[in-house]
Amino acid sequence: MLEFLTILTPSYNRAYILPKLYQSLVNQNNKEFIWLIVDDGSSDGTQELVETFRQENKIEIQYIFQENKGKHFAVNKGLKMAKTDFLAVIDSDDFIAENAIAEMRILVDKIKKDDEIAGFTFIRFSEHANFVTEKYGKKEWLVSGAPTYEWEISGEMIYCFKTDIHKKFLFPEFEGEKFCAESLILRRIERKYKILFTDKVLAYGDYLDDGLTRNYYQLLLNNPKASLLNIKERFQDSMGKNEKLGLAKEYWDIASKSGTSFKTKFFGISPFLIMKVLFNKLRK
After folding, report:
1. Is the dihedral of CA 188, 189, 190, 191 positive or negative?
2. Any idea what the Cα angle at residue 180 is, between residues 107 and 25, rounded to 5°?
């Protein structure tokens, strides 16, 4: 079998829920993929669990262990190891529809020969979402630059990229920092390549109490270098004055509370807008 796709799953102490993703992969009607698990220093028996999966020999599984460094380090490691033409990151608390790999195969064939297209997307909804199934799976649109999309309920896009392109856009790795927003990398790719967006609902999952999205603001404070870098790049792409001022306020706030040097705080994004932020603070 010639695998065209790597499903990359970073995981940290998720042995209690990994079987759900594993079963969804086993249930695929197309098995032309590799499941690559990068274990980010788990201490809950994840390695032993994955070994039981491998012994069942139902799908191809690769496993890497690293000391706990953070999800973005795990994604970087998985990207460097991946050999297939395409790669999608599926989180450990998600699972995919039975036809997901087959649908992704169809999308791959549409874009694989176009060097201007980096990859494609599909939707991840909550498994408890009540939505009209017939409304989805019919639209495809090519996007150059920042995407716009909307749907009837809360959800998010999952990206599947050409591996060679994705490898050019690794996450920045700062010593001692364990979080970097995925939007930083997505934005960098979107600046240089087109992406085929679709409204296919191929993944499901809910945010868990031990997930990264809990206490998100504290994550930004605990990882200031990556957070400030992301704000600076958002600032470059922002258009409206109010949006830029809001980003300057966010930048000053995180820089101040994380002990960043005054020089970085004041000159890191826009001295003019930082002055305006400080002036507004004094007026209150």
Report:
1. positive
2. 40
Q: What is the mean pLDDT of each run of 10 residues along the chain (284 residues)?
A: 90 96 97 97 97 97 97 98 97 96 97 97 89 86 82 82 98 96 95 95 80 74 95 85 90 91 89 87 73
Give 151's contacts (C-beta < 8 A, 6+ positions apart).
Answer: 123, 131, 136, 199
Q: How far is CA 96 from CA 12, 24, 118, 245, 274, in A?
A: 19, 6, 22, 39, 44
Phi, psi of 229, rounded to the nearest 5 degrees: -60, -40
- Give the C-alpha separation, 241 to 247, whole Å: 10
Please choose, from the candidates 218, 225, 238, the residue with its C-alpha nearest in 3D space to the C-alpha of residue 172: 225
Q: What is the CATH number of domain 5-205?
A: 3.90.550.10
Instruction: Show me where the domains of the chain are located.
Output: 5-205, 216-283
The rounded distance, in Å, linking the Cα atoms of 249 and 209 is 29
- Full-model pTM: 0.91
